[in-house]
Specification:
The chain has about 260 residues and is of the alpha+beta class. It has a domain at about 90-260. It is built from twelve helices and six strands. A hairpin with a 3-residue loop joins strand 5 and strand 6 (about 235-240). Helix 2 packs across helix 4 (about 40-50) and helix 3 (about 25-35) crosses helix 7 (about 90-100). The chain is globular and about 60 Å long. The two termini are about 40 Å apart. This is Transmembrane transcriptional regulator (Anti-sigma factor RsiW). Keywords: Membrane, Transmembrane.
Length: about 260
């Protein structure tokens, strides 16, 4: 089993949704395939399935006993806050899992729905890490290697981001360019260029709008993924994957130099 496969995880939240029958047929098929191929995931699935507690019924009973009039009155006294999105984290993660597993390109994936806490609100790197954690090598394996299509994708992406993107300027040694697409987080476009590294699996170079000031390369880890990020006056950049930190840093620095030329 490769380094990537041994670390790839399906959350307990997603497994519970699968057990509860809350996933679509496509999403359920994805989880079934992952369970069949991953012994550790199968053990977690069996453990969660073994629970016979009626959680839904228990919460329904608590809701029936709740002092709704008093609670509603208290809510009316609270200062107004922005309307919450109706699409929950679990629902979006499941949909995203099905989407990436089927290799489906998407123009407007609302990465903002991945945010669950105020503490990480506005952190686009966390949104990208949440999304990329769903990728497996098989996600990208079957994408056609059409150089003309990839060039057109990069051109369209560059026009939206106001940045010149050519295959030569974003090529990565040891990794095969697979797709360039436009994602979206809270109305802000994020360009995602995905690669398949022969040793470490999926790799992505992401670009979004900058805040007007530059920042040197920095490194962190999220969702068991390594990240290198930087910015210039107009754009913020992020390279993310399971490549070792030093190797990822070298790739990111090379990208930075080429794009700045």
């Amino acid at each position: 089993m490769s380094e990537y496969d041994s670390k790839s995880q399906v959350s307990d939240e997603l497994l519970v949704a699968f057990i509860d029958g809350e996933l679509s047929d496509q999403q359920a098929c994805l989880i079934e395939a992952r369970i069949a191929a991953d012994a550790e995931l199968a053990r977690r699935f069996e453990g969660l399935s073994a629970s016979s507690l009626d959680f839904r019924g228990a919460f329904d009973e608590l809701l029936a006993q709740a002092p709704l009039d008093r609670l509603n009155a208290g809510l009316q006294e609270l200062p107004g806050e922005p309307e919450q999105r109706a699409f929950g984290r679990r629902g979006f993660l499941a949909a995203a899992a099905a989407c990436v597993a089927l290799g489906m390109a998407t123009d407007r994936l609302l990465l903002g729905h991945l945010g669950a806490t105020r503490e990480d609100a506005g952190n686009w790197r966390q949104r990208v890490a949440d999304y990329m954690a769903l990728y497996t090598p098989q996600t990208l394996d079957n994408l056609p290697l059409d150089e003309l299509a990839q060039r057109a994708q990069l051109q369209a992406l560059g026009e939206r981001l106001e940045l010149a993107l050519q295959p030569a300027s974003v090529a990565l040694p040891g990794a095969q360019l697979k797709r360039a697409q436009l994602l979206e987080y809270d109305g802000v476009p994020i360009g995602q260029i995905t690669y398949l590294d022969a040793r470490y699996g999926p790799l992505a170079f992401c670009i979004t709008r900058g805040n007007g000031s530059g920042a040197a390369l920095a490194q962190e880890q999220r969702q068991a993924l390594n990240l290198v990020y930087w910015s210039d006056a107009r754009h913020a950049y992020l390279l993310i994957g399971r490549n070792p930190p030093a190797a990822l840093w070298a790739l990111a620095d090379d990208l930075r130099r080429r794009l700045a030329a």
